[in-house]
Protein: GMP synthase [glutamine-hydrolyzing]
Amino acid sequence: MLADHDLVVVIDFGAQYAQLIARRVREAGVYSEIMPHSASAERILERKPAAIILSGGPQSVYAENSPHIHPAIFDAGVPVMGICYGFQEMAAAMGGVVAKTGLSEFGRTPVEVDEAGALLEGCTGATVWMSHGDSVTSAPEGFTPLAHTAGAAVAAYENTTKRMAGVQWHPEVLHSDIGQQVIENFLVKIAGCSQDWQASSIVDEAVAAVKKKVGSKKVLCALSGGVDSMVAAAIVQKAIGDQLTCVYVDHGLQRKGESDQVEKDFVEITGAKLVVKDVSDRFLAKLAGVIDPEAKRKAIGNEFIRVFEDTAREIADADGIDFLVQGTLYPDVVESGGGEGAANIKSHHNVGGLPEDMQFQLIEPLRTLFKDEVRAAGMQLGLPEKLVYRHPFPGPGLGIRIIGEVTRERLDILREADFIAREELTKAGLDRSIWQFPVVLLADVRSVGVQGDGRTYGHPIVLRPVTSEDAMTADWGRLPYEVLEKMSTRITNEVREVNRVVVDITSKPPATIEWE
Ligand SMILES: Nc1ncnc2c1ncn2[C@@H]1O[C@H](COP(=O)(O)OP(=O)(O)OP(=O)(O)O)[C@@H](O)[C@H]1O
Ligand SMILES: O=c1[nH]c(=O)c2[nH+]cn([C@@H]3O[C@H](COP(=O)(O)O)[C@@H](O)[C@H]3O)c2[nH]1
Ligand SMILES: NC(=O)CC[C@H](N)C(=O)O
Ligand SMILES: [Mg+2]
Structure:
């Protein structure tokens, strides 16, 4: 398949962003795949890579048992780029010094360019996205240090003779200026790759793969009304038509108006079969007394599957139903610890929250993709823009936006506050500039207020507007003060139990988008 194209191998050291690196390389017109750091040097070199990129990772290169690449990789004459942990790994392997300096940097960081070289050509300074605790304090001999930040004495280096280079920051994330440029500079100027690869249609490949896998069997699709499952369903419907039945689970953790909209919009647009399961009692019973976020996620993930199993039994013919379609995306997989050696950040209900005894074979046509790639596929499939650009909403819904136990009463409070905040966002015309807008109830926190000349002892609501491209990194959304004021006034006036509204101004990292 790749006989005519250069291949860039991304070595995954347990990064949150390995797939994102591969994707940026593909965006630069060079085909790219990921391999685990545990792959042997022979296995990697057998692929005849035109270049290798070493990803970031949670470990420290000098620590015992930290992951390493075989030194043969650095001697093979193949161009290598290191990113974050990979940058530190390359520095250490080539004779530089890596240390914990006590100067961590997380999120937006200004970088000063000392000498642009080939890697940073044309750049004098930039704002980049950092996420590190260790630093390269001295570049290896023969490597030119190119840049520094307040917390990283050497933030970039290159050795054009050896065709090696690296950066401490994350050029693969959207929030780094000159990110794509740095990757392209490495690929083209340092490694000499040809930019002749084009992503063939994601949709056509996925349709063919589903046809082959399913044959004439019946398939169930978990449909949430969100973009991902709608695109997944549309792909499967294109492949196997009315062998498909969609199931929407109304678990009582939805936002106001959500359930009606799913029934109306989806069936109208696709004409697919839809079963709606009204099971809020079941979910609330499973969530009673549960406070730990991971326990909540697992309880919800389990119950989802139990409902799908019940539905499969109800509608199956003699053959039964073996396949379950989910709109899982790559961020769901990697955050659930599904990347090679990746840390478990949170168990997404559809990946890490699935029960161990699940009988279904999963069909997840979007599992290696990111939200904006899915949106592009949705537009290509002819789905309406209004639905394709809906804000994402997590499967566990308001259940992970109530910090504390989930009860009906608390859900009602949050549902109202969320509705007001979203209504004001839409009125202000900001739906497209804000990527997602969680509204969170701090149910176990109370504070004193004065309302109508009397004392109140109510709950705070947190507004969490964010900008992002793919949920892997995010910045806090700068809502205009007038809009925030309107939200705050309306929420405290209209939702009796709330007497305080606060805004979350943290990027991801260090925070995540959701609070649990
Ligand atoms: N209420 C629900 N009923 C049935 N399936 C669901 C429900 N909520 C989530 N799912 C399943 O879990 C998957 C992951 O949920 P997620 O919220 O990430 O995706 P989505 O809802 O399809 O898209 P979006 O990210 O835009 O909300 C969905 O694609 C869908 O397959
Ligand atoms: O379907 C889902 N099931 C889950 O369990 C889940 N947890 C987080 N999210 C969504 O994923 C994106 C990244 O979220 P975080 O920054 O909070 O990890 C954001 O868009 C979140 O809303 C989920 N979606
Ligand atoms: N994001 C990373 O790759 C981090 C690398 C290393 N764990 C550090 O903290 O410096
Ligand atoms: Mg959703």
In short: The CA atoms of residues 337 and 344 lie 4 Å apart.
